[in-house]
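Renewal narrative, Specific Aim 1. Our central claim is that a sequence can be written position by position from structural information alone. The example that follows is taken directly from our test logs and has not been curated for this report. It begins with the C-alpha cells describing the chain, in the order in which they were read.
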C-alpha cells in the first residue's frame, strides 16, 4: 500500500540503509595509503593489501537494518506486527550507529601512531540517524492507523 505515508517512510529507510551498506562511511589517509571504512571492511584504496580490517559485525547489523523495514512494508494487514518490527528497527539503527562509531574509533587508533594521518566522515555515516527519525515517524503513523481502526470498530 504505497499511498500510506508510513510506507513512504519505510521505503526511504530502505534506500538510506542500502546506500550506507554500499558506500564508504569514513576515510583515513595514513602516509601514502588511503583507507575507506565500508560496512563490511576497512579497505585500502592504494596499496597491495585489499582488506586491512574486517568490520563484519557492523555489516550484519546494517544489513539487518536494511531488511527489516523492507519486510515491514509488506505486512500492512497486521499493524501490530508492523509496530513491533518498527521498534526492532529502532534498536537496530541505534546499534548500527554505535557500531559505526566504534569501528571509526578503532580505525582511527590503528593509524594514530603513524607520522602523518588524517581522517574524515563521508555523508553515509549519518544515514542511520536520518533513518532513525523516519522509523519513528513511520511507527507513529502506523500507531495512528491502528487507533483509527480500533475507534471505528468501537462505533459499530
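The sequence written for that structure reads:
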Amino acid at each position: 500500500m504505497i499511498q500510506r505515508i508510513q510506507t513512504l517512510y519505510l521505503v526511504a529507510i530502505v534506500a538510506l540503509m542500502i546506500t550506507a551498506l554500499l558506500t564508504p562511511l569514513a576515510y583515513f589517509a595514513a602516509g601514502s595509503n588511503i583507507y575507506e571504512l565500508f560496512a563490511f571492511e576497512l579497505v585500502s584504496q592504494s596499496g597491495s593489501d585489499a582488506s586491512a580490517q574486517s568490520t563484519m559485525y557492523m555489516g550484519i547489523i546494517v544489513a539487518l537494518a536494511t531488511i527489516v523495514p523492507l519486510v515491514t512494508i509488506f505486512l500492512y494487514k497486521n499493524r501490530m506486527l508492523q509496530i513491533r518490527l518498527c521498534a526492532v528497527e529502532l534498536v537496530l539503527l541505534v546499534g548500527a550507529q554505535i557500531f559505526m562509531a566504534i569501528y571509526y574509533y578503532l580505525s582511527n587508533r590503528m593509524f594514530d601512531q603513524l607520522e602523518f594521518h588524517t581522517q574524515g566522515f563521508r555523508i553515509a555515516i549519518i544515514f542511520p540517524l536520518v533513518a532513525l527519525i523516519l522509523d519513528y515517524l513511520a511507527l507513529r503513523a502506523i500507531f495512528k492507523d491502528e487507533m483509527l481502526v480500533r475507534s471505528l470498530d468501537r462505533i459499530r
